[in-house]
Each structure stands twice: as C-alpha cells, then as structure tokens.
Amino acid sequence: MRAAEITPVSTKDAPAAAGHYVQALRHGGLVYVSGQLPVAPDGSHHPQADFETQARQAIANLLAVTRAAGASAETLLKVTVYLVDVANWPRFNAIYAQMLGDLRPARSVVPVPELHYGYLVEIDAIAACHA
C-alpha cells in the first residue's frame, strides 16, 4: 500500500489532535475518525460541564471531522461511544437520537472507568466518503 492512498484529515471546526495521531484518515472510500472528546474546537477544556453539554460537543466534533473528510452524518457506518458510568447511557442515547434524527448507524456503547482530562464521553466512527 502506498502512503498516498491514505489521506490525513484536519479541520479547525474540531479540536486539533493533542497527541501522536490525526483527527481522521481517509482510505478506500472510508474515513476513520479518531476518538473525539468534548473539547471545544479552540482546544479549551471544560470537563466540569454537565453530561449533556459534553455529549453534544463530542458529537459535534465527530460530525465536524466527518464533514471535513468528505463524509457526513448520513454516511456514518459504525460509531463507538465510550461512557464513564453506564448510568449515562439513557441520556446519551436521547441526545444522540436528537442530533442524528432518523439516522441509525451501527453503534457500540462501552462503559469505561475514566477518560482523559476527566471527561465523561468519547466517540469515534467509521463513515463512507461521498463519491
């Protein structure tokens, strides 16, 4: 496989990668979006924000990176959600349904003991790029 077949994706509409990774990679008509925490696009952190605010920001970041890669919410194939405290699952599900409407990509929700910076949710995804 040639490196030119793999294209990094970056947008200022979501927080910049804070480690040794990229916001997303495009390859073979797919985009692989790195885990998106509820960090503001300017990189500022607000882990004290309530769960609903965090969930909305993480989803917004995911969708911003997806759009920058030439995909969209409509082309999401698989979403993985990492939640601190499984008790947050019903609230996350309601916000996710509100933000995605009738769209229902495949999804996994994984309870975790903690996330970076003390956040309560992180989301990654795979989407098909628009032709």
UniProtKB/TrEMBL annotation:
Q: Which GO molecular function entries does the Swiss-Prot or TrEMBL record give?
A: hydrolase activity
User: What InterPro entries does the entry give?
Assistant: RidA, RutC-like_sf, YjgF/YER057c/UK114
Q: Which UniProt keywords apply?
A: Hydrolase
Q: Which CDD domains match?
A: YjgF_YER057c_UK114_family
The enzyme's E.C. designation: 3.5.-.-
Give the family from UniProt: Belongs to the RutC family.
Protein name (Swiss-Prot/TrEMBL): RidA family protein
Species in which this protein is naturally found: Sulfitobacter porphyrae
